[in-house]
């Protein structure tokens, strides 16, 4: 994950982040932001994004917008890595920094409790987390 524009640079208006999901990466658990939108723009590979009851596959040059309040999950079920930009408005780069740290310190399997606590600080409500267990994932 590379933060291209952070909350300090945009005065909190948005974050621009470049990310790569490895082939077969499950991405984060399904979640919802009530005060933030996200937009994904694929640079290479294909990104699959579940948005509410719809599944979208985004090809290079394509994009998808996740409106506030939509349950979503970006992932890469494909056989090659996917590189993409995503924009969060307002800015959420602090959330992704914390999520990357949590993911790294737990070997990619944070506990449901840790995800819930992190989400509560950053307008991220994880959906259908198993209770008292670890959640294999990659960060968004």
Helix/strand class: alpha+beta
Architecture of the domain at 2-97 in CATH? Sandwich
Number of strands: 10
| Separation, N- and C-terminal Cα atoms | 9 Å
CATH class of the domain at 2-97: Mainly Beta
According to CATH, the homologous superfamily of the domain at 2-97 is Jelly Rolls
Q: H/E series, N to C?
A: EEEEEEEEEHHE
Tell me the β content.
35-45%
**Anisotropy-based shape:** globular
Number of helices: 2
Descriptive account of the structure:
The protein has 140 residues and is α+β, with helices and mostly antiparallel strands. It has a domain at 2-97: Jelly Rolls, CATH 2.60.120.10. It is 16% helix and 35% strand. It has 2 helices and 10 strands. The protein has helices spanning 93-105, 112-121, and strands at 2-5, 15-21, 31-32, 37-44, 47-51, 54-58, 63-66, 72-75, 82-89, 125-126. Strands 1-2-9-4-7 form a 5-stranded antiparallel β-sheet, with no helix packed on it. The protein has a 3-stranded antiparallel β-sheet with strand order 6-5-8, with no helix packed on it. Strands 3-10 form a two-stranded antiparallel sheet. A hairpin with a 2-residue loop joins strand 5 (47-51) and strand 6 (54-58). Helix 1 runs antiparallel to helix 2 (112-121). The longest helix has 13 residues, at 93-105. The termini are close together.
